[in-house]
Amino acid sequence: MSKTLVNRLSLAALALPGLIQPAQAGRAEETYNSDFQYAHYEESGERMKVDVFELSAAAPIGKAFSVSLDLVRDTMSGASPMFNVRDANGQVKQQISGASIADQRDMVNVGLNYAMDSVTIGLSGGVSGEDDYLSRYFGTNLSWDLNKATTLSASASYAFDDVFPTGGSYRKSKFNQQYLLGVTQVVNKNTLIQSNMTFGYNQGFLSDPYKKVFVENPIGSPILDDTRPDKKFQWAWLTRYVGHFKSLKAALHADYRFYVDDWAWSRIW
Amino acid sequence: MKKQSFKLICIAFMLVALSACTPVKPWQRGNLALPQMALETDAHEAAFRIHAFHSKEGSSGGYGGGGGGCGCN
């Protein structure tokens, strides 16, 4: 087998589950590589427009280590809903902030991976800053090949965030932690399945400083600040299927994610 | 309707889970090594999509940690 094929086998079959580092480090990084992406996100009307620039690079250090660097810049502008209000006809409609929002987010992320025979350990961390928001975070992940077909993975990540709204005179903090357990299984020569479970716990200022609540028949002001609980527990279960179809020379990817939290929000997609 | 589709998904998942894993020899792993068979075929695009879910849907998790929070609204 050629070395290239061995590298590609490592990338697919070992498949470092659960990592969304823009450049997947580990055994896959046996050569230098870099990647760039530009993306544009736009909502209808005068609402948000976002331009995203993302640059990543990864390099091996010796036989077991690899490092990665990711840089992201988001530029955002437009308007955002602030609260719902009843108009003269009794219809509920959204009150929009006006096209007044303009911000830029810059993120730097670094990662280090160490690969042993059947275990890979990764460390990563970074900073993401905006005019009114600062996030500092770090995480660690582990993947363990039980055999040629089954890989277990676990990760823990922590984020320390500060909010200091434009036009406000306060600075509030929150602390997020997230833990993942997952398994990736080679089902047969054409099929891979991955199943991950994550548990998240958020503490601190979880409200949105730019959102308001309109109260009918108020005692005092009808417009109140958005006030949410200061703790949130999140649970997500992701199952992914990847199947190869020889006749089409293509792969089918299907993801099913179930999300629920103790604020009674749930999502299935 | 929603219940029915949930049942269908559960049955499909069980069928896949119940089909015993076939041992795959090293020389049979060629298809698994194809670029389109990677769990993340485009890591940048995946990161962008997950970030948008987090910002617009208020949900996160499943794909693992990594990436900082934001004041996106």
Low-confidence stretches of chain B: none
Q: Determine the strand fraction of chain B and express it as a percent band.
A: under 5%
Number of beta-strand segments of chain B = 0
Task: Please state the CA-atom Rg of chain B, rounded to the nearest Å.
Answer: 18 Å
Give the spatial strand order of the biggest sheet of chain A: 1-2-3-6-7-8-9-10-11-14-15-16
Helix percentage range of chain A: under 10%
Note the main sheet of chain B: none
Q: Please identify the top-level CATH class of chain A.
A: Mainly Beta
Largest sheet of chain A: 12 strands, antiparallel
CATH architecture identity of chain A: Beta Barrel
Strand content of chain A: over 45%
| Nearest-integer average pLDDT of chain A | 85
Inertia-based shape of chain B: flat
User: Which H/E pattern describes the elements of chain A?
Assistant: HEEEEEEEEEEEEEEEE
Describe the global form of chain A: globular
Which residue ranges of chain A are poorly predicted, with pLDDT under 50 across at least 5 consecutive positions? 1-27
The arrangement of helices and strands of chain B along the chain is HH
What is the gist of this entry?
The complex is a heterodimer of chains A (269) and B (73). Helices cover 4% and strands 62% of the residues of chain A.
3D architecture notes:
The complex is a heterodimer of chains A (269) and B (73). Chain A is built from one helix and 16 strands. By secondary structure, chain A is mainly beta. In chain A, the strands form three sheets. In chain A, strands 1-2-3-6-7-8-9-10-11-14-15-16 form a twelve-stranded antiparallel beta sheet, with no helix packed on it. Chain A has a two-stranded antiparallel sheet with strand order 4-5. In chain A, strands 12-13 form a two-stranded antiparallel sheet. Chain A is globular, with a radius of gyration of 22 Å. Residues 1-27 of chain A have low confidence and may be disordered. With 73 residues, chain B is mostly helical. Chain B is flat and about 50 Å long. The interface between A and B is large, with 93 and 49 residues.
